[in-house]
Design a protein that fits this description.
It is a single chain. This protein has 9 helices and 7 strands, in the order E-H-E-H-E-H-E-H-E-H-H-H-H-H-E-E. The protein is of the alpha/beta class and 253 residues long. The protein folds into 2 domains: 152 residues, 3-Layer(aba) Sandwich (Rossmann fold); 84 residues, Arc Repressor Mutant, subunit A. The protein has a 5-stranded parallel sheet, sandwiched between helices. A two-stranded antiparallel ribbon has the order 6-7. Strand 4, helix 4 and strand 5 form a beta-alpha-beta unit. Helix 6 crosses helix 8, helix 6 packs across helix 9 and helix 7 packs across helix 8. The longest helix is centred in the middle third of the chain and has 33 residues. It is elongated and about 75 Å long.
Length: 253
């Protein structure tokens, strides 16, 4: 069976819904479709809707750019040839703010340079019309799974940053030192505080970061991108360190 969009969509009568995908919270993944041909666009919308996803179609790149970013698993089925910006231009436009949105290119001709350029820029797949419906559905399935994984990672990082932001300056300093491998007494020496005080701050750090062990805390620091301790001594502030934002932390709490 050849691509939807070029004949009456008979696939709707026999597609078995095995491709359906729904999140645990009931939010259905979105398949954005940008194609200037209304018949192709509506046929692809019907195909993806039958598969259990939520299609959102656009006739041009500018229409898509005006649409707000989706916060559910999603992907973009994008025609190379469009009435305003072409598909490659649109790919470049969304590279910064929607870089987690997987793109599946579709094209009416097999243009090797265009295909190579799209794939090098991070396209998930490049299909030449006419293509098999199942080839597109498989590509969408993989793209949705990739999007879901990216959203989960983003959510986890945001949660980690929120926990880290709840630390006091002194707790942040202690965390940087202990994940760098310093013992409590060594961290106390660097900070000019007692070992028992370091232990108390360390306990608070473990509690606020929800770390089950030191290796767990080290992994969190790595995911946050915490830099190595920056040592700078003065008569008033024996130790300075920087947080995950790169800001210099000084003083004590």
């Amino acid at each position: 069976m050849t691509v939807s969009g070029y004949r009456q969509p008979l696939y709707m009568q026999r597609f078995d819904h095995r491709g359906s995908f729904e999140m645990g919270n009931g939010q259905t993944p979105i398949v954005f479709i940008v194609d200037g041909d209304v018949f192709v666009r509506e046929s692809l919308e019907a195909l993806t809707r039958c598969a259990g996803w939520h299609p959102v179609g656009f006739a041009s790149a500018r229409e898509f750019l005006a649409h707000p970013r989706a916060h559910v698993p999603s992907c973009l089925v994008l025609d190379v040839t469009l009435p305003d910006l072409d598909g490659l231009d649109l790919q470049n436009c969304i590279a910064a703010d929607r870089f987690k949105l997987p793109i599946i290119f579709i094209s009416g001709k097999c243009d090797v340079p265009t295909t190579v350029k799209a794939m090098k820029a991070g396209a998930q797949e490049f299909l030449t019309k006419p293509f098999d419906d199942e080839a597109l559905l498989n590509a969408i399935r993989n793209a949705i799974e990739q999007s879901l994984a990216a959203l989960r990672r983003e959510s986890e990082i945001q949660a980690l940053r929120s926990r880290y932001a709840s630390l006091t300056i002194r707790e942040s300093q202690v965390m940087v030192l202990i994940v760098a491998g310093l013992l409590n007494r060594q961290a106390g020496g660097e900070l000019g505080i007692s070992e028992s005080t370091v232990k108390a701050h360390r306990g608070k750090v473990m509690e606020k970061m929800k770390a089950s062990s030191l290796p767990d805390l080290v992994k969190m620091a790595a995911r946050l991108g915490l830099p190595s301790p920056l040592r700078k001594y003065s008569s008033t502030t024996p130790y300075l360190c920087i947080d995950w934002r790169g800001n210099l932390l000084d003083g004590s709490v």
